C-alpha cells in the first residue's frame, strides 16, 4: 500500500511539473489576409497582417517591417507598426510610373529578438492606369 501511495504521489508531481514547464510548440506566425495582390499604377491596396502568438510571446511587443526591399515605385506602411496587437493593416501604394511585373515582397515581424516573415506576391499591371 505504501508503494502504491508513493508511486501515485510521484506520478502527480511529475505530471503537474510537466504542465508548468512545457515549452510552446511554436513561437509565433505571420499570416496575410491575401497571399497575392494585383495593383495598377496610381492605386492603393490594403492587406491585413495577423500575428498568431504562443503563450510565451503573448505579451511581447511586435515591430513590423519587410525582410526584402520594395520594388521601385512601391511604398508600404503599417498601421500600427509597433506594439502589442493581433493584426495590422499594410497599405501598399503604386506610383504612377511604377514598372509592371511580378514581385515578391516579404512582410515581417520581430518579437523579442526573433524575426519571422511571409511572402506576398505583388503583380503590378500597366494595362490600365487607375484614376487618381
How does this model look, in words?
This protein is α+β, with helices and mostly antiparallel strands. The protein has one domain: Sandwich (Immunoglobulin-like). Helices cover 15% and strands 45% of the residues. The protein is built from 1 helix and 11 strands; from the N terminus they run αβββββββββββ. Strands 1-3-7-5 form a 4-stranded antiparallel sheet, with no helix packed on it. A 4-stranded antiparallel sheet has the order 6-4-9-10, with no helix packed on it. The longest helix has 20 residues. The protein is elongated and about 45 Å long. The relative contact order is 0.25. The N terminus is likely disordered.
Give a concise summary.
This protein is of the alpha+beta class and 132 residues long.
Distance between the termini: 84 Å
What is the 3D form?
A: elongated
CATH superfamily: Immunoglobulins
Uncertain segments: 3-24
Say what oligomer this is: single chain
Q: How many E-type strands?
A: 11
- Counted by DSSP, the helix tally is 1
Number of domains: 1
Q: What is the correct CATH architecture?
A: Sandwich
C-alpha-based Rg, rounded:
23 Å
If you consult CATH, what is the topology? Immunoglobulin-like
**Share of helical residues:** 10-25%
Element string (H = helix, E = strand): HEEEEEEEEEEE
Strand line-up in the sheet with most strands:
1-3-7-5
Q: Tell me, rounded to a whole number, the average pLDDT.
A: 83
Given helix and strand content, the structural type is alpha+beta
| Biggest sheet layout | 4 strands, antiparallel
What fraction of residues sit in β-strands?
Answer: 35-45%
The CATH class assignment is Mainly Beta
Amino acid at each position: 500500500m505504501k508503494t502504491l501511495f508513493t508511486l501515485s504521489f510521484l506520478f502527480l508531481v511529475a505530471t503537474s511539473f510537466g504542465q508548468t514547464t512545457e515549452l510552446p510548440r511554436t513561437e509565433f506566425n505571420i499570416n496575410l489576409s491575401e497571399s497575392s495582390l494585383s495593383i495598377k499604377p496610381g492605386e492603393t491596396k490594403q492587406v491585413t497582417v495577423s500575428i498568431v502568438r504562443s503563450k510565451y510571446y503573448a505579451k511581447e511587443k511586435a515591430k513590423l517591417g519587410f525582410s526584402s526591399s520594395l520594388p521601385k515605385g512601391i511604398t508600404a506602411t503599417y498601421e500600427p507598426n509597433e506594439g502589442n496587437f493581433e493584426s495590422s493593416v499594410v497599405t501598399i501604394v503604386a506610383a504612377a510610373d511604377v514598372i509592371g511585373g511580378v514581385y515578391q515582397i516579404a512582410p515581417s515581424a520581430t518579437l523579442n529578438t526573433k524575426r519571422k516573415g511571409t511572402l506576398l506576391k505583388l503583380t503590378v499591371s500597366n494595362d490600365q492606369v487607375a484614376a487618381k
